[in-house]
Each structure stands twice: as structure tokens, then as C-alpha cells.
Amino acid sequence: MLFFKIPLISVKAIIILLLIYSNFNNVWASNFITRGHYVIDLGQKIEWLTCPVGMVWQDKTCVGTPLKLKYKQIKFAIEQASEQLGGKWRLPNRKELERIVCKSCGAVKIDTKLFPNTPADSFWTNEINAWQPKFMWTVNFFTGHTFGRFPEFIPNYVRLVRDR
Predict the structure, then answer these.
(1) How many folded domains does the chain comprise?
(2) How far is CA 21 from CA 14, 18, 25, 42, 99, in A?
(3) 14's torsion region: left (phi>0), alpha (psi -120 to 50) or beta?
(4) What is the pLDDT of residues 76-104, one digit of tens each?
(5) Could you write out the three-class secondary structure of the chain?
(6) Does 1 map to a domain?
(7) 36 lies in a domain?
(8) C-alpha radius of gyration, the chain, whole number
(9) For residues 1 and 21, what is the distance between their CA atoms, to the nearest angstrom?
(10) Residue 70 included in any domain
(11) How many CB atoms lie within 10 A of CB 20?
């Protein structure tokens, strides 16, 4: 029988490297860091409000009733969020909102651990549909699809974001 003698220091070094590698992969694989009422999106370098407008962060979840707002009402929600929470909150653009869609999720196409109690419905983006300028783009968290067919007077849900 042939035995190889591996120096103890090599085994320790290998274990340390494996631990570092596994921790690095866990951090790298997760693009989000939860911070109570907001979620840091490392991939997009933005921060999301955890709860849709109308709901509040309480006891590690979103409580209350989310509000559907007409597009012109959103500026007041943004002013209020910026005043109360600090920073410059805004509507996400289409790509930002599309990137938090979870195609493999169940009834609501969003990670409900990150964004609890999100309605399975349409959310406003800050973009006008260039093909039909009377309509705005929305992202639907029931289907996971994007639609450019909502006029500004139709109420939709709102999730705010700020740059990091």
C-alpha cells in the first residue's frame, strides 16, 4: 500500500482557499442585499424600495395596501419618499424593472423573499413607448411580461428606485 504524506500546511491552505472560494461564489451569485425597507441591487448599482408605494416595511415584511397611481400622481409619491427616506427616489426604467422579474417564480413573478407581498400586476416604468407615444411601458409581475400599452390616466402600481 502506498501512502502519500501531504504536509499539514498544504491541507490548511487548501481548506482556506475552498472557504474563500465558496463564500465568494455565494456573494457573487446573489445580486441583492436586503436592508429592511430597501434592497441593494449590486448588478444594476441601484437601491429598490422593498415595498410598493402605499405599503410600509414592518416586522420584516410589507404591510398595508399597495396603491395604484395614475402617472401624474407618481411625482408626489417620489417627493414623499425622497423627503422621508432621503436620497433621490425615482421610477425605474424598463430594463431595471425587467431585471427583477423572476420567470421561474410561482404566482408572482418576483422574488417574494426580497420583495414580499408584491401584487401580481403591472408596475409603471419611467419610459414612453416610442412606437405609440401616448402609452407608457409597464412590467407585469403576474405574467413576467413588459407591455407598452398603458395611457398615463390608467392607474398601475409603483416601485421606486434610487441610484447608488
Answers:
(1) 1
(2) 10, 5, 6, 19, 26
(3) alpha
(4) 999 999 999 999 999 999 999 999 999 99
(5) CCCCCCCHHHHHHHHHHHHHHHHHHHHHHCCEEEECCEEEECCCCEEEECCCCCEEEECCEEEECCCCECHHHHHHHHHHHHHHHCCCCECCCHHHHHCCCCCCCCCCCCCCCCCCCCCCCEEEEEEECCCCCCCEEEEECCCCCEEEEECCCCCEECCCEEEC
(6) no
(7) yes
(8) 21
(9) 34
(10) yes
(11) 10
CA angle 157, 76, 63 (to 5 degrees): 45
| Inside any domain, residue 25 | yes
Task: HSE, CB side, 13 Å, CA atoms: give it for residue 150.
Answer: 24
* pLDDT number for residue 26: 34
One-letter amino acid at 66 equals P
Q: Hey, which residues does 41 pair with through a beta bridge?
A: 32, 46
* Interatomic CA distance for residues 92 and 125, integer angstroms: 5
CATH number at 94 reads 3.10.100
Q: How confident is the model at residue 21 (pLDDT cuts 50, 70, 90)?
A: very low
Place of cell 407598452: 148
